[in-house]
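> example.struct
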């Protein structure tokens, strides 16, 4: 016999737990209008209905939470699903790096490879060129000697400012100053796209003494592999795991920012046709081995245990523009099932 359910009624929409979900569901609605022309009937329905139902394990005062069930569409262009995947990927990467550091005695570098912006119609070919150039770069003898594995992420941004705004000027000051451009002038990069790679590289602890590759060597090699002498920037540094330049979060976050992706339908179409079907996150070498270990449970010792005691289930149903919530106590059977040892599965820092 199931216990009689305890109901506490409806909570306010700005609730701690659902606060971040409602804006993502609104973005999913916006994306749906842009993407539906590409999808069959069933896929369109999944996308539109994505996360209309979510439930969380929590306690009576909702001070803890763990995601429980939801109807995820799993489409990479869905802002809700991309966000959820980013939170899980960040957790996975953090655990993998800690395990590699301890078990393999390695260090990490954070590498960013860019090229000048391209036009919308060149984006797909430019991404192909990036992929080929990356492979060439990692076949170089000195790189093969130094790098034991990597995780690589493709990201694309777009500049959709017709005029140079204050914010844009401060972002790309060097670029504008070089060309004598000031705030309020026409933006020469208007409607251009910038594909780039972020990568975490695994190197021996001795890297800084042996097999070290200088910044100018990285830059020259990347120029060579891209066959583009106009490239001026390559960033390579020791991986920072904390603070604003957290490399793990940088790699885990979405391939295209929502602000860029959903700015208008024309821009969405460019992102969709250029990124669809591509592998966005690529593991290689020791990183690939550890990604498999993570999935098979071999790295569980490195995961943080979820010590919270869950007593309640919070269910939320999407009703036009907000989630309607309901809280009930877990049944005896559910309590036993749910409070077995679990691990923390996602990071909260990704917005
Ligand atoms: Zn979704």
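> example.seq
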């Amino acid at each position: 016999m199931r216990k009689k359910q305890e109901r506490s009624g409806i909570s306010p929409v700005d609730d701690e737990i659902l606060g971040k979900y409602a804006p993502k569901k609104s973005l999913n609605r916006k994306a749906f209008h842009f993407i539906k022309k590409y999808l069959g009937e069933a896929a369109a329905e999944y996308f539109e209905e994505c996360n209309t139902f979510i439930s969380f394990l929590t306690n009576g005062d909702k001070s803890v939470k763990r995601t429980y069930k939801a109807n995820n569409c799993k489409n990479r262009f869905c802002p809700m699903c991309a966000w959820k995947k980013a939170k899980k990927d960040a957790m996975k990467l953090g655990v993998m790096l800690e395990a590699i550091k301890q078990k393999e005695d390695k260090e990490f570098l954070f590498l960013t490879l860019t090229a000048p912006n391209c036009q919308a119609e060149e984006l797909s070919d430019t991404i192909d060129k990036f992929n080929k150039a990356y492979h060439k770069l990692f076949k170089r003898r000195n790189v093969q000697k130094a790098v034991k594995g990597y995780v690589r992420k493709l990201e694309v941004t777009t500049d959709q400012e017709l005029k140079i705004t204050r914010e844009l000027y401060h972002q790309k000051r060097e670029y504008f100053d070089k060309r004598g451009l000031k705030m309020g002038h026409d933006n020469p990069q208007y409607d251009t796209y910038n594909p780039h790679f972020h990568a975490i590289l695994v190197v021996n602890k001795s890297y800084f003494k042996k097999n070290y590759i200088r910044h100018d060597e990285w830059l020259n090699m990347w120029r060579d592999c891209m066959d583009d002498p106009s490239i001026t920037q390559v960033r390579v540094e020791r991986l920072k795991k904390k603070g604003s330049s957290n490399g793990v979060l940088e790699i885990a976050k979405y391939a295209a920012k929502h602000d860029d992706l959903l700015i208008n339908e024309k821009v969405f179409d460019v992102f969709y046709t250029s990124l669809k079907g591509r592998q966005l996150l690529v593991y290689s070498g020791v990183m690939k081995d550890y990604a498999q270990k993570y999935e098979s449970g071999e790295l569980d010792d490195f995961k943080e245990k979820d010590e919270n005691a869950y007593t309640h289930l919070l269910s939320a149903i999407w009703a036009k523009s907000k989630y309607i919530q309901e809280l009930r106590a877990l049944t005896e059977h559910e309590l036993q099932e749910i409070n077995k040892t679990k691990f923390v599965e996602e990071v909260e820092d990704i917005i």
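> remarks
The pocket of zinc ion is lined by residues 28, 50, 72-73, 75, 78, 80-81 (CB under 6 Å).
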